[in-house]
Amino acid sequence: MSFSARRQLAASARPFRTVLEQKIRERRLTLEEFSEYAERFARENAEPGTLSVRHLNRLVAGHGPKGEPLGQLRPATARLLERIFAVPVDELLASPRGAMVAPELLAAFGWLDGHVGTQVTRRVAELERAELLTRQARRAPVGRAEVADALADYYGRVALGYECDGRPLTTSVLARPEWLDLACSLTPDSERLGLAYAAEAALGNLVEPRAVDRLAEAVALGVRITDAPVYRLLDIDVQPGAISGTVGLASFVDYALTADLLEGELIDALAAGERTALELRDRYLPDVTNVLNVADRLCAGGPLALCAIARAADAYRAADYVLLVQERSAHVLNAPRRLSVIPKAFHQPLTDVAADTPIRATLLRELEEELFGRHDVDSTAGERRAAVPMHPERLSEPMAWLLEDPERLRIECTGFGLNLVSGNYEFASLVVIEDEEFWTRFGGHVEANWEASGLRLYSSLDRQLLAELAADEAWANEGLFALLQGFRRLDEIGGRRVNVPTTRLLTASEP
Asked: What is the reported pTM?
């Protein structure tokens, strides 16, 4: 990417809403990390001001949650910000002039220039942020079942369906019968995913205008896209109790600007009342045969797990598991503003591309990142300097405690499927913390990272509430797949801690 292109981006693209947001991003910090830094700074410099993540979210946006003005800052908060940045607070809360594009997106712009041989910055500048926000608002009413039904019209009735306490629920996940109810403990004895070193990274047949639009949306809305490697699936053999297969490497940007565009295209078509104009789907994922031929396309994906943590009985309820559900933030590329289980991850390496291929490795890393506060294992966080990020000496206190005793933590794959939304592979999983002491000691440590805008807790004994949860139209289809497969497995192993809805499989395709 040329210097002139970068300067044009600086002058025209305005991803930062305030100077404060720009300066935090220039330090390559998340809001959570900056809040922690500000707390330490205040303590070390005898400043009384505080900055919670919730308050910081309002400040970097430049307005309140409903668009109302911020109002006057507390003097202590204003003084704290001014001491950290050496900039007047009025300037920090103003819109930036000539704001730079977020550093992680510059690589994506350069990638696109390199693959299509043209400058893209002019076209990005032409797309108004207001237009993208309007598009986002139009997408919001499109529910999970509507997406699943549209895909059934396109591919035929090949995806999974369930009955949850008598209520039928369709999904967009294609799975063979032997790919379900795996009860596969994710250990070296039962999980074997090998790396194909010579596998070519499959570049999709790039549709330049759509790719440019995707980058413009990321710039305007603060979506995180990094040019990090991901594992693409080349072949898979899944049986109850055993998983084997081969993965290769691909660029996350390659995926983001090709296969991932299918979700937005479909939702835009449904929002406009049109189901026939699916040019990208016709190009990238035209039929079930193409969906199943994972080696001939860029098939990215990863694991997502229902997390169940044992709790002791108290005065109000019997001993149970607490089940965690996230509301995905607007800043994630995949399933923004949807419900999902947590953790949910792309399968990708940290520093050792051969050693990081196990699904278990990705789930342990995501538990650290998404629930236990490990910012240094976030693949979007930029430079990574630790040779072994998951070394025992670097683990969070909750993770170190869990791994001290193999009986404390159960990690299983409950099902495998191919998601018709974007062709992704999905390893539905279950993470069970069996020792009640964990919640007593570490429940206060459990906090979702930037990928979630909210975290919900449910009791495994609250059957009615769980049935209502499963029927919520806000679910991402892959999240519902993991939830329902988790219900089925918990019903088998949970004993008296569990009274989940009866979940019956209605269809499992034989493509």
From this structure: 0.79
